[in-house]
Amino acid sequence: MAASTKFLREYKLVVVGGGGVGKSCLTIQLIQSHFVDEYDPTIEDSYRKQCVIDDEVALLDVLDTAGQEEYSAMREQYMRTGEGFLLVYSITSRQSFEEITTFQQQILRVKDKDYFPMVVVGNKCDLEGEREVTRQEGEALARSFNCKFIETSAKSRINVDKAFYDIVREIRRYNREMQGYSTG
């Protein structure tokens, strides 16, 4: 079946997580298919990519956010406008894993919802020897949030597209459910 082009749906995706977990690397790997080796802390960058997800054309509008605490005041603004969130931690940093709950709770508070489309992303899975957070812990956290979990490597390009495609699928599912509530 050919991809439907009659309506180009834009998805506002927001990549959140602590400093240095690889948010920009994941985003740039998705958009430009290359790995950025040097660390340059982001304040806020926006990227766009058109792709086909489950036979539907999608325009991904990806907001790569600051992990640094000094930019936390900007968070509420992008949390208000985002339609789906990738909650990224590094498997090599227990602290970044523990920060994920704070991001999740803040998103739900800003959205005033009990559930909102999110995917928990354990990045840097290529650094198995430096792992501080088990896959099972990541899965358990995602289960507690009632969302999907995926381990990625921006460096090795493992599951990068899948992480972003999964959040689009979650947004689509969420929107179908919301339409069901409003019409039924």
UniProtKB/TrEMBL annotation:
Pfam families found in the cross-reference section: Ras (PF00071)
GO cellular component: endomembrane system; plasma membrane
Signal peptide: none
Localization (cell): Cell membrane; Endomembrane system
Top-rank taxon, per record: Eukaryota
SMART domains: RAB, RAS, RHO
InterPro entries: P-loop_NTPase (IPR027417), Small_GTP-bd (IPR005225), Small_GTPase (IPR001806), Small_GTPase_Ras-type (IPR020849)
Single Gene Ontology MF annotation: GTP binding
Keyword Cell membrane: yes
Main location: membrane
Keyword entries, A-Z: Cell membrane, GTP-binding, Lipoprotein, Membrane, Methylation, Nucleotide-binding, Prenylation
Topology term for the membrane: Lipid-anchor
GO terms, biological process: signal transduction
Family: Belongs to the small GTPase superfamily. Ras family.
NCBIfam families listed in its UniProt record: small_GTP
Protein name per its UniProtKB record: Ras-like protein
